Amino acid sequence: MEDEPSHSIKLVNFVSEQQLDEAKRTRGERIEDGTAQRDRPLYEILKENKDKKDAEFNERFKHRPPKALDEDETEFLDKLEMSRREYERQVADEEAEQLRSFQVIFYLTFFTMKKVLKLNYPYLVALG
């Protein structure tokens, strides 16, 4: 007997149908051992578990104060704000220049048309 190894081998016992039915009645059916069928697809079960974990994670970190910005981040945000203001100023300058150009063209066209009308139709100018 000393020649035999010291570790024991565990053998799985055969379970009869009758023993399985008895186990179902006493403890109920279980999905883990195959005595019960899932009523939902595995995808839904896994998705539900993932959603629960995500909700727990979010709940843990929801009440944490936000991290303070470091120097690099504040510098980046300042540069971003300056570039946004510069862009808005450029857009406003372009709009003002286009408006001035339109006004000049409008007045030149208006006075040119007025002169043409005076020369070609002097009686219309007298009416108006």
From TrEMBL:
Its main location: nucleus. The keyword Nucleus applies. GO terms for cellular component: nucleus. It comes from the Eukaryota. Keywords: Nucleus. It is found in: Nucleus. The keyword Hydrolase does not apply. It holds the Pfam family FAM192A_Fyv6_N. Residues 17-103 form the FAM192A/Fyv6 N-terminal domain. This is FAM192A/Fyv6 N-terminal domain-containing protein. It comes from Gossypium schwendimanii. The lineage of its organism: Eukaryota, Viridiplantae, Streptophyta, Embryophyta, Tracheophyta.
